[in-house]
Amino acid sequence: MAAPDVIVIGAGVVGLSAAIAAQGRGLSVVVLDREGPAAGASAGNAGAFAFTDILPLASPGILRKAPQWLLDPLGPLSVPPAYALRIAPWMFRFWRACAPARVAHSTAAQTALMDLSKAELEAFLRESGTLDMLRKDGNLQVYEGEAELKASLPGWRAREAHGIEFHHLDAAGMADIQPGLAPRFSHGTFTPGWYSIADPKLYTLALAEHFQRKGGTIERLDVVALAPQGDGIELRARDGASRQAAKVVLAAGAFSHRIARSLGERIPLETERGYNTTLPSGAFDLRTQITFGGHGFVVSRLSTGIRVGGAVELGGLDLPPNFRRSEAMLAKARTFLPGLNPEGGVQWMGFRPSLPDSLPAIGRARASARVIYAFGHGHLGLTQSAGTARLVADLLTDRPTAVDITPFSPQRF
Asked: Fewest CB atoms less than 10 Å from the CB: which of 85, 165, 220, 412?
């Protein structure tokens, strides 16, 4: 059996999107994944195409909030004591990325990738037969008092400079868009350009089906190492099996850096462990996604239910889940949305792959131009999937990339 033109490692939304884009360039493609399609963060995210979310997590604002948040082990940001020493080098890089000049650089790069991803999205959905899953319900960011709104204004001015539409609202204006908020939320900002998908897991599975209908193959295989071999790449699996391909796309999410290490690259990827609870669809009359920014979580409307989730736990890949974090967010949601029925929920925890400057790694490996990295999107994997797929397809076919990928270089650290 002839080796394929491309093997994509990772059957999440980024990997499958890249595989479909490569197919569209006439390449034969195989996708390998340790568990199968939509098994990781692509299954349990909030379902948002957050194109207006151009500001990096690494910013002076997060540095101001972080000390207070870290004091609460169930708050928006936590580091389990058992992981604190291990993550210290990553946190130092994160702190350096919060410098104003670096934030400006990251914001410009993030905006370019967001613009590309938005421009590519609807054509990609149409090609993959998933356009009917797209929703354009916007996002409502809510604030507890005028002081919290004022503190957010520099971020909104940065978005305004990039042409992002938004509307500041009082309590009455918020009630017109989303009834049922607790009175403590007196101000809000609505961004109509915030899209969502009906259900992220069903969407990713639909991409897998489309890829296979077009002749692609998906196999379960736990790839642990890559090795350049003449005019191709050898992929070595944990069980001793191996595969050959002319080129490889590494899009294995939070596990990607372990595989990249086999090529001699140490990429500082860490794992933001995200938690949520998905309630039945009738749990609340939700009309738009609601972001409780001061508390680090969102409530989103899916075709399969109401999802309450978010927060950041920097705890790596091996510690057991702490579902008290899901319970804490759900308890807050009950207070913030008095009409919410908290019964019948399903809890979930997943790994978001995050780099210290909040930008993904998109580009060629140092050891071989035949290996292309596409990972580290943090909270924005779904959002940036179509744009990343376009860039990967450009690299696979040696075309100029649609945007400058220098800021996303895997060797930038």
From this structure: 85
